[in-house]
Amino acid sequence: MTTLQLPGLIDAHVHLREPGYTYKEDFYSGTAAALAGGVTTVLDMPNTQPPTATPDALAAKAALAAAKAVCDVGLFVGAVNTMPIQHVTDGYLPVAQQACGLKIYVSETFGSLRIEELGPMHALFRTWAEKAAETGYRTPENPSGIGPIAVHAEDMMLAVCLNLSHLYDVPLHIVHVSRRSEIELIRRAKERGLPVTCEATPHHLFLSTEDVSHLGTRGDMRPKLATPDDVAALWENLHVLDIFATDHAPHTLTEKQSDAPPPGVPGVETMLPLLLTAVDEGKLTLEQVIERCVTAPRRIYGLPQQADTTVQVDIEKPYTLADAAQLCKPGWTPFAGRRVVGRVERVTLRGRLVYEAGKVLAEPGSGQVLFQQKIGANRG
Ligand code: DOR
Ligand code: ZN
Questions:
Q1: How far is the CA of 361 from the centre of ligand 1 (A)?
Q2: Closest protein CA for atom 2 of ligand 1
Q3: Which of 26, 34, 54, 67 could form a disulfide with 39 if both were Cys (CB 3.0 to 4.6 A apart)?
Q4: Which residue has the least CA distance to atom 5 on ligand 1?
Q5: What are the CA-CA distances from residue 247 to residues 14, 122, 152, 243 (Å)?
Q6: pLDDT of 378 higher than 50
Q7: Residue 107: its pLDDT value, please?
Q8: Tens-digit pLDDT profile for residues 217-246
Q9: 54 C-alpha to ligand 1 centroid (Å)
Q10: Is the distance from CB of 218 to CB of 224 less than 8 angstroms?
Q11: CA 220, CA 207: separation in Å to the nearest integer?
Q12: 10 Å Cβ neighbour count for 190?
């Protein structure tokens, strides 16, 4: 067997659904699925119930993750649209340093966190910049700084967010870029020196509108699958894409087959085999994968190193991705039926064997919750 050894991957965009939607996923099942995908750190999004938008909600979520996670977890705080803006910023600003970043939804999404007006958007960027003036942004030298603002901003809203980032000099991370117009505008922003980074998902890199007819609602997510020309633009602009992240957004098959299917697809288990298959096909280099799945997310979010952490992958035997092999709660993947190379055989986290041959060996709670020192939820 030809075995490749990689560092533990970072998936900088997952929805682990706890609290509120644990029938879809929870901190144990989602982080177990992450290990099966060679991922040893995940950054969890705030659109849970309740949303992660107050100190209490963040502390409660950190305690749940500390008790259940089997890989390391960073938590986003989220901007909510249900309170006067002053109360919103009062809510998460005191705990901004305990979050990996601030997530703002300005485009259509799952849940109720969407911000649709300039007033709150302006206040969010202004107050984040004020907080950064106190704490600095998080780097290895400044671990108690705050992270970037991450936005789900499609189409015209992307230009609004780029402008606010520029006006306040706030580092901006654009999640799941999917269209030619977007990646080309981000390229322009980077050329002009704006503090902007971005990510693309495996589903936007490896699927397109041409797959919608056979996938049905299994191919429905936000942003929606884009045209083959949009997909080509992402590949042409690989140098503009800082991160590959999954937007692991588990929903049950029953929900996906209902009259009102929620948008989103699982992804944390299938990213590495899809990327290694692209390496095998000469579309990517291994160095480009490691830069986008380890080095860049660590730099952008200021994540700590994980000592003695490795992933061993069989890169010899092709296999077919299948629903039945998925460890995530919904147990399906939009990539079912796809031939890939790159099967995760073994994962070691901080010197302990945590995953081997399809089995999660780590104890619930053995993962660390990042940045929680000041609210006391870190079990070390
Ligand atoms: O497809 C999506 N699913 N896009 C989002 O923005 C949210 C996510 C979810 O939470 O299900
Ligand atoms: Zn998401």
A1: 29
A2: 264
A3: 34
A4: 109
A5: 5, 26, 11, 12
A6: no
A7: 84
A8: 999 999 999 999 999 999 999 999 999 999
A9: 21
A10: no
A11: 11
A12: 16
The whole-angstrom distance between residue 131's C-alpha and the CA centroid of its chain comes to: 24
Contact 22, 328 (CB under 8 A): no
Q: What gap in Å lies between CA 21 and CA 24, rounded to an integer?
A: 6
Evaluated on CA atoms 234, 239, 241, 243, the torsion sign reads positive
- From the alpha carbon of 264, which atom of ligand 1 is closest? 1
Domains in the chain, start-ordered, CATH in brackets?
Answer: 3-378 (3.20.20.140)
Portion of the chain with pLDDT greater than 90, in percent: 88
**Which residues, other chains included, contact 244 with Cβ-Cβ below 8 Å and sequence gap of 6+?**
199, 200, 201, 202, 205, 271, 275, 289, 292, 293
In 3D space, the residue among 201, 200, 202, 203 whose CA is nearest the CA of residue 218 turns out to be 203
Given a contact cutoff of 8 angstroms between Cβ atoms, the answer to whether 241 and 174 are in contact is no
Query: What is the atom index within ligand 1 of the atom nearest the CA of 47?
Result: 10
Separation in Å, CA 23 to CA 14, 123, 365:
16, 35, 19
Q: CB-based burial of residue 170 (10 Å sphere; 0-12 exposed, 13-18 middle, 19+ buried)? A: buried
Cis peptide before 84 (omega within 30 of 0): no
- pLDDT tens digit string along 63-105? 999 999 999 999 999 988 765 666 666 678 889 999 999 999 9
Using the predicted structure, report yes or no on whether residue 325 has a pLDDT greater than 50: yes
Q: How many CA atoms lie within 13 A of 141 on its CB side?
A: 1
Ligand 1 surroundings by CB, under 6 angstroms: 15, 47, 109-110, 152, 221-222, 249, 262-264
Q: Position of tokens 């000469």? A: 282
Distances (CA, A) of 115 to 81, 89, 196, 295: 6, 13, 20, 31
What is the sign, positive or negative, of the torsion defined by CA atoms of 34, 35, 36, 38?
A: positive
Atom of ligand 1 nearest to the CA of 105: 6
Cα 292 to Cα 290: distance, rounded to the nearest angstrom:
5
Ligand 2 geometric centre to CA of 13 (Å): 6
How large is the average pLDDT for residues 138-146?
93
Instruction: Quickly state the pLDDT bin for 375 (edges 50, 70, 90).
Output: very low
30-61 pLDDT per residue, tens: 999 999 999 999 999 999 999 999 999 999 99
